[in-house]
Design goal:
The protein is mostly helical. Helices cover 82% and strands 0% of the residues. The N and C termini lie far apart (126 Å).
Length: 130
């Protein structure tokens, strides 16, 4: 593809000069708006007669992809939060079981201490009588 000249050379006729100036300014505007590597995509857009079908299809595809990704992220986040809540509830139940066992064991230990004290008193009293 031939690069347009940045110099404005007006031809002899006034009408042809106006058309050349407008065309040169349009080419200059395209060069300023689009870098060299995107000039190819600009040419393709001109070939589709400016309908923008490629752009609209790509934009719709990107929006759909974003929406699907967003929904999947929400579903995964919801699953993880539900799993964490489940683990918290399970841990709480286990802690309640352990604390109830500790309380019952504490009561058993206190009863054993009382029985031990009663036995020691009984042994001490029977030992002094002998």
């Amino acid at each position: 593809m031939e690069r347009p000249s940045l110099e404005i050379n007006l031809p002899d006729t006034h009408e042809d000069g106006k058309l050349y100036v407008v065309d040169s300014l349009n080419n200059l505007n395209k060069l300023n708006v689009c870098p060299d590597d995107s000039q190819h995509s600009l040419d393709e857009e001109e070939n589709t007669c400016g309908t923008g079908e490629n752009m609209a299809g790509s934009n719709t595809r990107n929006q759909c992809l974003f929406f699907v990704t967003f929904i999947l992220t929400l579903i995964i986040s919801l699953a993880l939060v539900s799993f964490v809540i489940f683990l918290i509830i399970q841990t709480r139940n286990k802690m309640d079981q352990i604390s109830s066992r500790l309380l019952s064991e504490k009561k058993n230990i206190e009863e054993l201490k009382k029985i031990n004290n009663i036995l020691l008193k009984h042994l001490n009293q029977s030992g002094t009588k002998d």
